[in-house]
Design goal:
CATH architecture of chain B: Beta Barrel
Structural class of chain B: mainly beta
Number of strands of chain B: 11
Helix content of chain B: 10-25%
Number of domains of chain B: 1
Shape of chain B: elongated
Largest sheet of chain A: 2 strands, antiparallel
Helix content of chain A: 40-55%
CATH topology of chain B: Lipocalin
Shape of chain A: rod-shaped
CATH superfamily of chain B: Lipid/polyisoprenoid-binding, YceI-like
Structural class of chain A: alpha+beta
Strand order of the largest sheet of chain A: 1-2
Number of domains of chain A: 1
Number of helices of chain A: 2
Strand content of chain A: 15-25%
Number of strands of chain A: 2
Distance between the termini of chain B: 33 Å
Number of helices of chain B: 3
Oligomer: heterodimer
């Protein structure tokens, strides 16, 4: 039987996954400090003319906005989780209403 | 008799040199080697890109390189950068507006300070650069490398006869001069655009 996961735990888990995933993708694609790229240029030389020419090929490289966006999203989810956290019942001293 | 033949031969060579027609080089490049690279400084990283849609004709006489004339065109839509969103902005109305202005062209007007050494001619080219509907006269340091009988090697067919002409130029233009987001976003993208042109044209021989 499935246990019902409380919303604040779900949001905290999502926040952690987003932060780890975003930073992880950025690190895995080379920790590029510029903007995200979906292609890169490799220079080759034409032997007859001596011209250096670009050959563009598809390659995803996550830019610096990637971990920042992931951490920003994770922070929002964490705030949401904190707001949804069930408050503990306060048991006052004996005799108080 | 031998002397007369020699004189005739020498005369014909002289006449051939004196009246040699300039060669017409076509810069349409099916191999995609001809390219222009551009670079703009920006705070996070320089914006660099390439364009390969080059065409045009240049009339070049190896005996009189100073009389070179011609026009080189670049299909503005062939300009690409690594970031797709940046690429869309580049092609859009605020920047190059390639839908309305699909061609960037340089028309060579004259050459000055022409120097030739070992098949390479360097000069200061004055010409009209047309970009985003604005034509302005600019001066560009340029080099011409004449490669006689190299067309066959380039197309991997020794039966094809002809010459190649390689043109190289490095220069800067100010984007505001051409109404490219003039005076705006100067904190994000530099006003100066550094351009590097490397192109080869072919002149087949019949």
């Amino acid at each position: 039987m499935l246990r019902r996961v409380s919303p604040h735990l779900l949001l905290r888990s999502l926040a952690a996954a987003l932060a780890i995933g975003g930073v992880g993708v950025w690190l895995a694609t080379g920790a590029h400090r510029g903007w995200t790229r979906t292609s890169e240029v490799e220079m080759r030389r034409d032997e007859v003319t001596g011209i250096d020419y670009p050959v563009r090929r598809d390659k995803f490289t996550a830019g610096i906005e990637f971990p920042f966006a992931a951490l920003g999203g994770a922070a929002l989810l964490a705030i949401g989780a904190a707001l949804l956290r069930p408050r503990e019942r306060s048991s006052g001293p004996a005799g108080t209403p | 008799m031998k002397n007369q033949l020699r004189q005739l031969l020498a005369l014909s060579v002289l006449a051939g040199t004196a009246f040699a027609a300039p060669l017409s080089f076509d810069f349409k490049d099916p191999k995609g080697v001809n390219n222009v690279q551009f670079k703009l400084d920006a705070p996070l990283e320089s914006i660099t890109g390439t364009g390969t849609g080059i065409s045009g004709q240049v009339s070049f006489d190896p005996a009189k390189p100073g009389a070179t004339t011609g026009r080189i065109e670049l299909a503005a839509k062939s300009l690409t950068v690594g970031n797709p969103m940046m690429g869309e902005h580049l092609q859009g109305g605020q920047w190059l507006d390639t839908a309305k202005h699909p061609v960037i062209a340089f028309e060579l007007v004259s050459l000055a300070n022409v120097r030739t050494q070992g098949g390479v001619t360097t000069a200061d080219a004055t010409g009209k650069l047309s970009l985003k509907g604005v034509s302005k006269e600019i001066k560009v340091p340029v080099s011409f490398t004449h490669l006689p009988d190299k067309l066959g090697a380039r197309v991997n067919d020794p039966k094809v006869k002809g010459d190649l002409l390689v043109i190289r130029a490095n220069f800067e233009v100010n984007r505001s001069d051409y109404g490219i987001n003039a005076g705006k976003n100067t904190d994000k993208v530099a006003e100066n655009i550094q351009l590097s042109l490397s192109i080869a044209g072919s002149a087949p021989k019949a």
